[in-house]
């Protein structure tokens, strides 16, 4: 088994409960960790024998482009889509961070993290 991590995928997205957030948007980062079997690809050196991290990145970027009120909803969509499209993955951890959130204080980021296992 093995782990593939994509760190600090940056997007400009329009999530949030406030009307202004849907209009002006904000900076976000997503961290993704997936568990899969890397033994075959470690021997074959062939992309078809592993999980393509370009596909993982594109799923994150596409889902971040769909507006949601809650970060939890975005994270759930990312988890669901990865499990649907990549059957070799057995576990996913996704963390979605809103940078400089409008919460009336000096807060660098708000992050939600979700972990799911293939059922």
Automatic annotation (TrEMBL):
Give start and end of each Dihydroneopterin aldolase/epimerase domain: 4-116
Reactions catalysed, as given in the entry: 7,8-dihydroneopterin = 6-hydroxymethyl-7,8-dihydropterin + glycolaldehyde
* UniProt keyword Magnesium, yes or no: no
Lyase as a keyword of this entry, yes or no, is yes
Q: Name one GO cellular component term.
A: cytoplasm
Q: Which domain of life is it from?
A: Bacteria
Which terms are listed as keywords in the entry?
Folate biosynthesis, Lyase
Give an example GO biological process: tetrahydrofolate biosynthetic process
- Per the UniProt entry, the Enzyme Commission number(s) are 4.1.2.25
- Family, per entry: Belongs to the DHNA family.
**Biological role stated in the UniProt entry:** Catalyzes the conversion of 7,8-dihydroneopterin to 6-hydroxymethyl-7,8-dihydropterin.
- What name goes with this protein? 7,8-dihydroneopterin aldolase
Q: Which source organism?
A: Flavobacterium sinopsychrotolerans
């Amino acid at each position: 088994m093995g782990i593939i991590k994509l760190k600090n995928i940056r997007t400009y997205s329009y999530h949030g409960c406030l009307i202004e957030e849907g209009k002006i948007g904000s900076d976000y980062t997503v961290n993704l960790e997936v568990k899969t079997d890397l033994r075959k690809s470690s021997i074959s050196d062939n992309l078809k024998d592993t999980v393509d991290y370009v596909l993982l990145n594109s799923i994150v970027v596409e889902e971040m482009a769909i507006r949601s009120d809650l970060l939890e909803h975005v994270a759930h969509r990312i988890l669901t889509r990865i499990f649907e499209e990549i059957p070799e993955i057995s576990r996913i951890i996704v963390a979605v961070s809103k940078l400089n959130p409008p919460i009336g204080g000096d807060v660098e980021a708000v992050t939600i993290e979700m972990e799911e296992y293939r059922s």
